[in-house]
Amino acid sequence: MKAFIWLKRVYKKPARRDGTRVLVDRLWPRGLTKEAAAVDLWLRHLAPSNELRKRYHENREAWMLFRRQYFRQLTKPEATEALQQLYELMSRNKPVTLLFASTNLEHNNAVALKKCWKERANRRQAPGRRARFAGASVEGRCADDRTATPSNAPFWGISRLVCYFNQESSPASKAAL
Asked: Based on the structure, what is the number of domains in the chain?
């Protein structure tokens, strides 16, 4: 996948290089009109749940744990539909800008989504790396590598990352939240 993925606060002025502007927050940003935001698509189901968002806000040091739980939430049906829409946008090989309202520019759901897509693209380019995930499972949700098809590609990548973060996280970090 050759698409350019940009990240930007929704409050920043739109630019030509933004391409398709996709808001990935559950709530509309405060004090911003739809015209000023210039949002092309609002994928609210890609946002973390309110519970997860509040828990992470209280414990900012738990970034890896947030990502693991967030990726797990992205395996839900409504999120996979939104991921499919995002995947279709990116398959056009045109710039896509993920918009977020968070003041934390380094740790938010848009950053996690971009990292997810980058890791997924890297695995596609280096098939030998995918074997590391073969056979991993998270509550029966991760498919075996042989079942990855273009129709389930977006959430296949998320499932792989869920497996990865469950394997990488220590019992101490799981108990942190």
From this structure: 1
Query: Domain limits at 151?
Result: 5-174
Helix axes 77-90, 153-168, angle to 10 degrees: 110
Going residue by residue through the chain, which has 177 residues, state the pLDDT in tens, using 9 for 90 and above.
Answer: 466 899 999 999 999 999 999 999 999 999 999 999 999 999 999 999 999 988 887 787 888 999 999 999 999 999 999 999 998 998 888 999 999 999 989 999 999 999 888 877 777 665 554 433 333 332 223 333 333 333 444 444 544 444 333 334 444 444 443
